[in-house]
Amino acid sequence: MKRVFFLVTIFLSLQAISQQKEVTITLDPITENIYMLTGQGGNIGVFKNEKGLFIIDDQFARLSDKILTKLKTVSNQPVTMVMNTHFHGDHTGGNENMTNQGATIFAQSNVRSRMENRQKEKGEIALASLPVITFNEGLQLYFNEENIQAYHVHNAHTDGDSLIYFVNGNVLHMGDTFFNGRYPFIDLNSGGSIQGYIKASEKALLIINDGTKIIPGHGTLATKKDLETFLAMLKEITANVQKEIDAGKSESDIAGNESITATYDAKGYGSGFINSERIRKTIYASLSN
Hints:
Blueprint: H1 2-18, E1 26-29, E2 34-38, E3 44-49, E4 52-56, H2 64-71, E5 79-84, H3 89-92, H4 95-100, E6 104-108, H5 109-122, E7 133-135, E8 138-142, E9 147-153, E10 161-166, E11 171-173, H6 194-207, E12 213-215, H7 224-246, H8 251-255, H9 262-265, H10 276-288
Parallel strand pairs: 4-5, 5-6, 6-7, 11-12
Antiparallel strand pairs: 1-2, 2-3, 3-4, 8-9, 9-10, 10-11
């Protein structure tokens, strides 16, 4: 578990370092009223509607002005609603700035709890950054031309992950339960698990169809086929690690066994923040708990 904590510390440190770099904000249309915004941190979903702009996640606080400026190219209406897919700072860092602009923050209930507890640990309570509307298992939002469904998926990337589906637009935002073409970061210290991560992908595949466009937490816009490949990767590597555990192999044995992830290493899955050794260690730790 100490190694998992060290991994989380590295992840957060890299986030802090990356925030110092110059960032280009890109906004790509998916449908007439739904867009994907990329910058630094988690991909943002954008929905233009009669009430203003509904966005999914909001990256880092220092990027809020740039993000809001880019959103003006979509609509002069303000951001009125923000849905957080989970609590990590590269998805919720802009919450306070969005609240100060008049937005209402939504999230699964564990997101608020974890954000609040972290703030208490630091002795800095920022109420404006916290979700004010929370849900347990699901939420339905109705607009004139769109229905939005939020689904809580349990113990996947964290214990507060949500899948956000635009029914009419046929677009699914998966937050960090999907890293397109990369090995995922599974936050075991925050309730994440490989078993839950696999179930999250299976849940998503029950929601979508062949024409669905998928916004991943990180990576490029994806299709159902991309998600199916990602799920196959998770299952194959998990099965390989479990086989080694059953054979009595140690964490160090598994961490050093490149054959466990070789198929997907060759496809570039280990080129992101989570390399092949780290995903083997993470899955070992998850299966061993």
